[in-house]
Amino acid sequence: MKIGDLDTPALVVDLDRLERNLDRVAAYAARHSLALRPHTKTHKTPEIARMQLDRGAVGLTVAKTTEAEPLLDAEPREILIAYPIWGEAKLRRTIELSRRVRVIVALDSRETADRLSEASAAAGSLIEILVEADVGMRRCGLPPGDGLVELAQHVEGLPGLRLRGVMFYPGHFWAETPEGPELLQRLNADVARIRKDFDAEGLPLEIVSGGSTPTLFHSHEISGMTEIRPGTYVFCDRMQVGAGVCGWEDCAATVLTTVVSTPEASRALIDGGSKSFSSDALPRSDEGGFGRILEAPTARFHSMNEEHGYLDLSNSGVRLRIGDRLRIIPNHVCVAVNMHEKMYAIRGDEVEAVWDVRGRGKLQ
Amino acid sequence: MKIGDLDTPALVVDLDRLERNLDRVAAYAARHSLALRPHTKTHKTPEIARMQLDRGAVGLTVAKTTEAEPLLDAEPREILIAYPIWGEAKLRRTIELSRRVRVIVALDSRETADRLSEASAAAGSLIEILVEADVGMRRCGLPPGDGLVELAQHVEGLPGLRLRGVMFYPGHFWAETPEGPELLQRLNADVARIRKDFDAEGLPLEIVSGGSTPTLFHSHEISGMTEIRPGTYVFCDRMQVGAGVCGWEDCAATVLTTVVSTPEASRALIDGGSKSFSSDALPRSDEGGFGRILEAPTARFHSMNEEHGYLDLSNSGVRLRIGDRLRIIPNHVCVAVNMHEKMYAIRGDEVEAVWDVRGRGKLQ
User: Using the beta-carbon criterion (under 8 Å), do B86 and A258 form an inter-chain contact?
Assistant: First the structure.
């Protein structure tokens, strides 16, 4: 099958670029003795998870137990659920998962630790724990300091759980910005503080897990971090190019679309909208828009509804006709992948494989 | 099963409100002798399509052939595909669909008409056509005038097709705004122009299809329109409340979520983000945010990532604890429904039915 045979819109992955991205980050992690535990939310696909493990990843990261289940086919040694588990159904699934693979859960409260401990102990399981620190994103996590240490001590005392260390997400540290150096300094101070506190209390700190794609190639500058959990690096996207982590030539995933209407020469409508790209906007940018068109980078993909994308061709030098096919790099590839049931893996013009995005949806 | 038994996040539909919304619009359409051809993209669910047909809808509207297929279980007399069909696979599916139900397709170019005609004639089918007019949205469609008339004439001469009239989408006509009256006047002028042109050329104009939810209860003020295609009215959402079409008490669909982290008293994180709500923002509003929380309308649901929603509770008078469950009206319910595999239909606290959202996804 050729790419020209695909019905549109379709999620297309360039295997040469994907493999290059995987190799580059595996080599970087190895060079700096950082464990690589990639976040699989970007691809949600066991075939790509397998490629990551084959290149030396120590395990996989997921956001949900339901995302983890299909990835077991990739045979990871361990899975980190980077998400606080709450509620009967989720606890049950976590315990079931722990019978099939070593499970690590990140959490940031006594309440979640207590419930998980009860469920784990009752089932005779052992769930490993990272306590979550907030290093500035103001999402989940407790700031480095007494609260974090007390939570770690609390976890240490609970049956059915075993503390392995700390997790944080430095996604606000966009290295290639004027604030980059200062943020890096603060991040180092936070990690040093955590290390000092845990050492003083004799708490285990086998894993200090950080690292996101925006910070990726600065990870070795954060002393005391033992592992990274980048996700987006497999495909890259418009956001990561904006963050300076990669170039357009590294973007491996595009949405293949067809022009379906050209009411005026300066306007074209494509058969992909928010149901194919998601409506995630581009932060830290004056550019706006919803994607970069490989065949027409000067055209502006300025708005969408569910089914259509709207292209402004004025002053772009671009003319499009009904039936023209365009490949578009999305703003945020993780949410775009989540919209697609299948991923078409190409090499050149040849469709080498069709993969089910088995971890898509998975709300609970 | 009670609502308290549901795992979160979950899409919950209040049946009393849904039925009231369906009754109100069916009565409005009947009172003004407007045919009702609801756009099913909002619910994507045959069970609700059936409720619409039982209340007198003349047929159903869909965006894709793949969205139409599961809705055949609701036994509509006819289905309007409000989307230009292009490409072999889509043509084939359209023809197959036309063997099971009367199919109407909207289109805005000779190219799409020619291809559809070839496919239809070759299969011995008859596809009905609405030519699409652009009345100001600048999406698909040709402006009222010569181009539109020529396209209609072209369709009239093609085998395998039968012209039934005109379709347009007046989604820019937000009645309850200062520009409302002027937009209504322009819309009336456009429809009058189309009627005059088609009459002069002896072109059939059995159907003049307009009407969206934002314009819903002003549809009878647009003379010469024969039918309406509202979608969002079944559930309403934050956007439609903003447009003045409905009140909070009409919002029938909410996303049920659980508080999973409260790192500070002024902040809470819920287990629903852009994968449950979509990242559609609120237009025409200074309010921003991603939803209205039934249990805490003063709390600000200010941002999201894929899995988490972030609530700012400062100055809200609200305190939340881990495990609290919140029901949230989304900004744009159509895209939120598209994220969910199941819909839980409740009456009071009782889950009366669990419906598969069978038309979700369906990119091609």
Answer: yes
Kindly determine whether residue A363 and residue B86, on different chains, have CB atoms separated by under 8 Å.
Answer: no
Based on its alpha-carbon atoms, the radius of gyration of chain A, rounded to whole angstroms, reads: 22
pLDDT at A167 over 80: yes
Residue span(s) of chain A under CATH 2.40.37.20 come to 248-356
All residues of chain B having their beta carbon less than 8 Å from the beta carbon of residue A271 are 86
Round to whole Å and give the CA distance between A278 and A294: 19
Q: What pLDDT score was predicted for residue A243?
A: 85
pLDDT at A108: 96
Asked if B261 and A108 come within 8 Å (Cβ–Cβ), the reply is yes
- Which structure tokens are listed for B352? 């009366």
Residues of B in contact with A86 (CB under 8 A): 258, 260, 271, 322-323
What top-level class would CATH report for the domain A17-235? alpha beta
Which residues from B are below 8 Å from A310, CB to CB?
Answer: 138-139
Residue A244: predicted pLDDT = 86
Give the pLDDT confidence of B63-94 residue by residue, as tens digits: 999 999 999 999 999 999 999 999 999 999 99
Domain A248-356 sits in CATH at 2.40.37.20
For testing contact with chain A, the best of B66, B274, B275, B321 (most A CBs within 10 A): B275
User: Which residue in B has a C-alpha nearest to residue A63's C-alpha?
Assistant: B307
Residue range(s) in chain A whose domain bears CATH number 3.20.20.10: 17-235
Q: Give pLDDT tens digits for B312-326.
A: 999 899 999 999 999
Tokens of B217: 């209860």
User: At the top level of CATH, which class does the domain B16-234 belong to?
Assistant: alpha beta
The first and second tokens of residue B301, run together, are 């649901």
Q: Does B300 touch chain A (CB under 8 A)?
A: no
> What is the value of pTM for the model shown?
0.96
> Helical H runs in B35-177?
46-54, 65-71, 88-98, 110-122, 146-156
Closest CA of chain A from B31, distance in Å: 31
Q: Which residue of A has its CA nearest to B148?
A: A263
Q: What is the pLDDT of residues A320-336, one digit of tens each?
A: 999 999 999 999 999 99
Tell me the residue type at B218.
H
Residues in contact with A18: Cβ distance below 8 Å, sequence separation at least 6, in sequence order: A48, A51, A234, A235, A252, A345
A-proximal residues of B, 238-267, CB under 8 Å:
258, 260-263, 267
ipTM, interface predicted TM-score of the complex: 0.95
| Chain-chain contact of A322 with B111 (C-beta, under 8 angstroms) | yes
Averaged over A147-175, what is the pLDDT? 92
What's the CA gap between A220 and B248, in Å, rounded?
51
